Amino acid sequence: MAIYKYSALSSDGQRKNSALIAANMQDAYHALKAKKLVPISISRRYYASKRISIEDTLLFFMHINFQLACGVTIDGAIDSFAESHGDKFLNIVLLRLSDDLKSGMSLGEAFENCGVFDRVTVGLLKASEKTGNLTEVIGTILVFLKLQSQWRNSLKQMLTYPTFMLCIAFVALVFCFSTLGPQIIALGENSVSGLTRLAIEIVPKIPELFVGVLFISVVVGLYVLKKGLWRDMLIHIPIIGRLYIALEIWMLFKTLHIGLEARLNFINTLTLAMDAIKCPMLRRDLQVIHDKLLAGYSISDSFSGMQYVPTSMIIALSVGEKGNNLKDSLKHISDSLYNDLCRQVKVLGRVLGHGMILCTGLIFLFIIYSLFQPLYDYIGVVTF
């Protein structure tokens, strides 16, 4: 996707200067023709991402929720956010969204046409058009986005300082061995250990080796992404795989909960949840559950064969289904899963953070032992 700036004539002869998002120049031209505009000039501005960040999405829906509460129309709320936000790409997206709404497109179709909002958000907004509870749905979307933002920010905060210190340690390692290493060898090769000589030869080459390793990693990573294998591989990584499964299971039950909150029936809510889940194995399980529900099985019986759903949650589903309070049961399940997800995020953050700090300390100890210890010994000999 890219942003194209254009100048065009409308049907009444007015000149219009604006921008749009399109895959290529030809698509941009056809988009202008669809708006009944005669293109004068079209120029590509810069590459655009297919998604906007959770933080920007959260700010956007917070603004929309506030404006709707104040009685502002949805397209007016979108326009006011675009005027106050500094991100050019997001502003173009919102401009396109506002234009689609003003041209008579439905809310769900307009958000889907943008191509930057996830399917769960689009599905909930489409449901709100049928039920007439847009304000409630936006509030539900806000809660969902806040929860996603919280656990991500928690992990980032825990890893920022250890990552910074580890980078400093690597820079110090390469700098010390590149500048001081040859001088240490020149002072007295016999007084330098074999490990130090080996490090002095290898460490200065780390930047070159890093470029090679990075290139190979990028090639392998692109292949894995293209084949869609990374999610299956991620499951088998200790701690990270367990966290990934916990995240997907929470996404499943939270989506089921907010779908029922938006007054969707359970089948449509499950279909919405299937769009939110990315793990192929879980998607296959959900397809089996979907088929069982269509065949007349109860919700609890359909979920009973799911590998990563504990028995206690199956029982909670059964109680909620029989007591006609399934929405409350799903809320309690999703809240419990979120608490467990946050706990696992903290565990992962502590493990990675402590590991990075340990590596940082070992690097500095290695520098002291390999370089400064021989230098200290040499100074002692000279003094004597």
Question: What's this entry about, in short?
Answer:
With 384 residues, the chain is mostly helical. The protein is built from 17 helices and 3 strands. It folds into 3 domains: 2-47, Ubiquitin-like (UB roll) (Roll), CATH 3.10.20; 54-117, no CATH class; 132-384, Type II secretion system (T2SS), domain F (Receptor-associated Protein).
Main attributes?
74% helix; 3-stranded antiparallel β-sheet; mainly alpha; single chain; 3 domains; 3 strands; globular; Receptor-associated Protein; 17 helices; Ubiquitin-like (UB roll); 384 residues
Describe the model.
- This protein is mainly alpha-helical and 384 residues long.
- The protein has three domains: 2-47, Ubiquitin-like (UB roll), CATH 3.10.20; 54-117, no CATH class; 132-384, Receptor-associated Protein.
- Helices cover 74% and strands 7% of the residues.
- The protein has 17 helices and three strands.
- It has helices at residues 25-34, 54-69, 74-84, 88-102, 107-114, 119-131, 134-179, 181-187, 194-202, 206-227, 230-235, 240-261, 266-276, 280-294, 299-303, 311-322, 326-383; strands at 2-9, 15-22, 38-47.
- The N and C termini lie far apart (72 Å).
- 24% of the residues are buried.
- The model has no long low-confidence stretch (mean pLDDT 80).
